[in-house]
Structure of Methyltransferase domain-containing protein:
Amino acid sequence: MTRSTNIPADSAAPASTHHPTAEQVEAARHDSKLAQVLYHDWEAESYDDKWSISYDQRCVDYARGRFDAIVPANVIRELPYDRALELGCGTGFFLLNLIQAGVARRGSVTDLSPGMVKVASRNGTSLGLDIDGRVADAEGIPYDDNTFDLVVGHAVLHHIPDVEQSLREVLRVLRPGGRFVFAGEPTTVGDGYARTLSTLTWRVVTNVTKLPGLRGWRRPQGELDESSRLAALEALVDLHTFTPQDLERMATDAGASEVQTASEEFTAAMLGWPMRTLECAVPTERLGWTWAKFAFTSWKTLGWGDANVWRHVVPKSWFYNVMITGVKPS
């Protein structure tokens, strides 16, 4: 098992208020599902801010773009689906924005973390969407056979110990002809270069900000120490990286048909992860709106080049994110 996080283990990320004890962290080293609950409960209230998640047009377009990039055009023309499920929902980013984008009419959100289900359900309510939430294990989804028309997930499969078993469960709860779409999964090659670049960035920034006159650009030591406990859990929850062929094989073995994969973010990931690491090392108020605009515009520009130039040159297994779709046979 390998980590898919790209921020070094000693990097700083803003902590939430649900801090596990040292004893809980130690127990989580021997229980990956406990680690998932502790880490994601800890992150739940601050997760949207940490990852710049929103439910406005920016993220609606992003979520819809991931869906459109992998789903066949003839399916897109027949939207919306009636009932959808998000597996490992986190704060609800993928499904809530897909519903707003017209992909589905109503949905259910599930996660192993009660804290995440609480936040996702609250987000759905605040948006006025038809959503229900359940705490659920992705290896044993608590819904009847043939319940959903669509199952989605974003950056969730790499957290699940038995991915193939989870995909079998996805197919079980889908109606015949129903589709699943999972996006944002880390590739093995992409994880390697992204982590290397992030580690290098972290070392440079943390050393430079020790210099006289630059110490105001460094997060307080107490915040760095506290976030190191979060990083210790983060190292335990990212269980896998994938090649596109890995995912295709697992989905096919689980019983899916019409399986397809696609990948994205090559140069965008090479810039994005160092920028994210810098944001973790430097106090938020030091960067401001100008930085945020530069970071987002740069990432989008490189993403355009990845989609329109590099995808014709570079093997898809070299891109950072891989997505997959498939259908439950009728």
